Amino acid sequence: MKHARIVAAIGLAAFAHASAPAQAPKAAAARDWSRAVAATPEGGFRVGNPNATVKVVEYGSLTCGHCAHFAEEGYPKLLQDYVKTGRVSFEFRNYIRDPFDAVAALLSRCAGTGDYFAATDAMFAAQSQWIGKLQALPAAERQRMVQLSPAEGFPQIAAASGLAPIAAKHGVTAAKAKTCLTDRARLETLLTLRQKAIETYNLEYTPTFLINGKKVDADGWARLEPLLKPGG
User: Fold this and answer.
1) Structural domains in the chain (count)
2) Which stretches make up the Thioredoxin-like fold domain (predicted)?
């Protein structure tokens, strides 16, 4: 009898367990693709899903006012509303226009893949300040620095403009900055990137945007965003 009660108890417990509603498995959290950054074979830096349906590329210059405006107005919305979901990726390719631009590009790239976009954003945000410092120099002094070899002149430009302290906030120490600014191979990478943009896309101005490899008629966020939407 005692044995029967034990069996019955086990049976009831098993029945209760079996009849309890099964808990649905927790849905996996959606990946935040705005945190995925990688260097690209083309020489740029991409944020977002490498397999995104819509791939946006910007050829931009760190001395370009319109590029700075896009970085302030459009880039945050692009990240939050499009890149984060994984449907759109964004790649920035430096298009250098002058030695001052080259110095800024070299320093932002010197920050490394993880800090590249943060360093680039910081330089865009402070663009008027560091360009203002360069413009405040006597024309003869600017010309002197430009006429020096890159190995000599670039570190001087970085110091005179205030770009070096901006880069330092993103992990670019003085020693690291000197290495990046005086390494001819790094400069050649930027020059090659520029030349390929001209040859492949007949690039004439910045910013220039590509969507899935094709140049589009958009010079800012207002004209770019509609092209990112389905059917755009």
Assistant:
1) 1
2) 43-228
